[in-house]
Amino acid sequence: MSDTPPPSCHDSVTMTCPVCQASFTRIGRRRFCSDACRAAAYRRRRDAGRAPIVLAKSRPRRPVTVYECDLCEQRSLGEQYCEQCRTFMRRIGLGGYCPSCGDPVAVNEILEDEVSP
Question: Where are the domains of the chain?
Fold first, then answer.
């Protein structure tokens, strides 16, 4: 038999901090080793009930962007390369096909027409 006493099982002697797992001497009703660990435990309890923030997936803008060739002035929706001139087109803005004529039209062009007197 060894002459060493058995380890103490009383919380009043030593205790392990539930946040950082450090051993500390308990004073009064204290459950955490420091105020920082107490605050961290509070934040964990507070945030446990909240739903996680879910961001919407970003969508590629190229399919809804209107482009125009500087040489032949042909427009396309979602295509950056002019097949006729074999050059890259410049971006006009986000848009779509016009319901009446079927040509690609940028939203900012429609809004400029409505705002101008």
Answer: 15-48, 62-115
